[in-house]
Amino acid sequence: QLQASGGGLVQAGGSLRLSCAASGRTVSSRVMGWFRQAPGKQRELVAAISSGGSTNYAGSVNDRFTISRDNAKNTVYLQMDILKPEDTAVYYCAASSYCSSSTCGIGMYDYWGQGTLVTVSS
After folding, report:
1. Could you report the per-residue pLDDT of 20-61, keeping only the tens digit for each?
2. Strand 116-121 relative to strand 8-11, pairing
3. Which residues does 63 contact at the CB level (< 8 Å), separation at least 6?
């Protein structure tokens, strides 16, 4: 089970840190990803991290967001800085049983958290 938290309302230019705590499975050996879905849009990859620590980011968040993992806490984080109104979305964490790379597509992720809402006001 994946439990996402940390969403909320923030002004443009602000920061939030999302957390994804895993229970019943270990995140250290899996590719973990953060995805987001804005109203009327498809779910998209925001950032992913492999078991070896390699990362992949969507171009729209590169240099603003940072994905990391704490294997001791079985938790993955998404640090979001310089937030923009277009970052407003429900953010989901996910884990893959099949993927070995941080560049795998959304279809390779088979475990999903419940989502946490991020709202960025202008």
Report:
1. 999 876 777 889 999 999 999 999 999 999 988 999 999 999
2. parallel
3. none
